[in-house]
């Protein structure tokens, strides 16, 4: 490579690293803060995290090192298994110069032989940050209360904030903006994904629609909180039981699996019976319009190529669940852009809060 090309590459790297430090300076107020749920963050702070994610993504694509947390150590507590969340945290930590320690359900005494508070105080003296993926939101909140270091929510029953950052970065990449975009969530909106998408949309000034039978709508308390947020952001909330009405003009149709980790097997028949009319099909995508994109936090049962999918096929005579393979593999699907962005947005959260 010529000196001219070398100097050009160096100048580009310097400019991109300067951009990184400029955004980190804007995020200075987040240092030392835990990332437990989006309700704890302003729309401006969420926007800054998305800006930081975009810069870190550019650095990653350009193979420009950004080991800004060299020598730090983080604990990754996984009471529920994961592909995307674990890989995203481990790769992001390595990129930032950190050493991650993975604790699976058999590698920790948390909540069994040792209380949450005691575990938090032990880990907080050994690690610079702690990720928790598991069950009740109260657990991650207690870890944050006692650890003395930033704690990040990798998923609880109630909220999944790192996923929403990845979703919003993906929407920004495809549409250029979040404000005013219509997102329709199809299916069970009572738990982490429905809750977190509703909160995120309310913060960002988006139009959120939950489409499901009424018993699958979010809690009244959380709806009231989000309605209050919409008054400031200009967003809106709708709760509709008719899929064909709900998707009209949608920019994004989003869905998730119908039975979550940790739920009993005996609810499969009820969920499939209730939610089959809310499966995302090409007909629904076409009804939304050519602008519409399909999103899913994954894993997805769009065919019979998994143990769970095959079980559903045998027991219930269906060839897919929450989305058809035609939509999942179709031109409107951006699920793998979304999956990749888990890494960039999780990296942004750690970079900003440590």
Detailed description of the structure:
By secondary structure, this protein is α/β, with parallel strands linked by helices. 48% of the residues lie in helices and 12% in strands. The chain has a 5-stranded parallel β-sheet. The protein starts with a helix and ends with a helix.
Residue share in helix: 40-55%
The helix/strand order is HHEHEHEHEHEHEHEHEHHEHHH
Q: Which strands sit side by side, in order, in the main sheet? A: 7-6-5-8-9
Mean pLDDT: 95
The radius of gyration over CA amounts to 21 Å
Helical segment count: 14
Overall 3D geometry? globular
- The percent range for strand residues is 5-15%
Low-confidence stretches: none
End-to-end separation in angstroms reads 37 Å
Number of strands: 9
Structural class: alpha/beta
What does the main sheet amount to?
Answer: 5 strands, parallel
Strand and helix map with partners:
Elements: H1 3-26, H2 43-61, E1 73-78, H3 84-95, E2 99-103, H4 116-126, E3 129-133, H5 137-147, E4 151-155, H6 161-175, E5 182-186, H7 192-204, E6 207-211, H8 220-233, E7 236-240, H9 243-246, E8 252-255, H10 268-275, H11 282-288, E9 293-296, H12 307-316, H13 325-328, H14 335-353
Parallel strand pairs: 1-2, 1-3, 3-4, 5-6, 5-8, 6-7, 8-9
């Amino acid at each position: 490579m010529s000196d001219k090309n070398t100097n050009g590459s160096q100048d580009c790297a310097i400019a991109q690293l300067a951009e990184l430090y400029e955004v980190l300076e804007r995020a200075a107020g987040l240092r030392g803060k835990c990332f437990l749920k989006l309700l704890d963050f302003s729309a401006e702070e969420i926007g800054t995290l998305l800006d930081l994610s975009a810069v870190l993504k550019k650095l990653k694509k350009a193979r420009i090192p950004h080991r800004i947390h060299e020598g730090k150590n983080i604990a990754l507590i996984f009471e529920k298994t994961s592909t995307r969340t674990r890989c995203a945290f481990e790769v992001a930590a390595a990129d930032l110069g950190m050493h991650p320690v993975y604790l699976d359900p058999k590698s920790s005494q948390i909540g069994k032989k040792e209380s949450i508070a005691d575990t938090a105080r032990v880990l907080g003296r050994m690690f610079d940050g702690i990720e928790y993926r598991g069950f009740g939101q109260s657990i991650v909140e207690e870890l944050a209360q006692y650890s003395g270091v930033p704690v990040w929510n990798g998923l609880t029953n109630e909220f999944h904030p790192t996923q929403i950052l990845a979703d919003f970065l993906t929407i920004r990449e495809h549409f250029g903006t979040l404000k005013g975009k219509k997102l329709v969530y199809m299916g069970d909106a009572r738990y982490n994904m429905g809750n977190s998408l509703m909160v995120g949309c309310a913060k960002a000034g988006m139009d959120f629609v939950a489409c499901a039978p009424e018993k699958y709508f979010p809690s009244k308390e959380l709806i009231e909180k989000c309605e209050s947020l919409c008054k400031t952001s200009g967003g809106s909330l709708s709760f509709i039981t008719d899929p064909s009405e709900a998707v009209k003009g949608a920019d994004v149709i989003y869905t998730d699996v119908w039975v979550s980790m940790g739920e009993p097997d005996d609810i499969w028949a009820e969920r499939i019976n209730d939610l089959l009319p809310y499966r995302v099909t090409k007909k629904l995508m076409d009804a939304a319009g050519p602008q519409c994109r399909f999103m899913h936090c994954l894993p997805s049962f769009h065919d019979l190529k998994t143990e769970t999918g095959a079980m559903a096929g045998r027991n219930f005579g269906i060839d897919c669940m929450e989305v058809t393979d035609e939509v999942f593999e179709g031109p409107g699907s951006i699920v793998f852009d979304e999956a990749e962005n888990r890494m960039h947005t999780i990296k942004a959260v750690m970079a900003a809060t440590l």
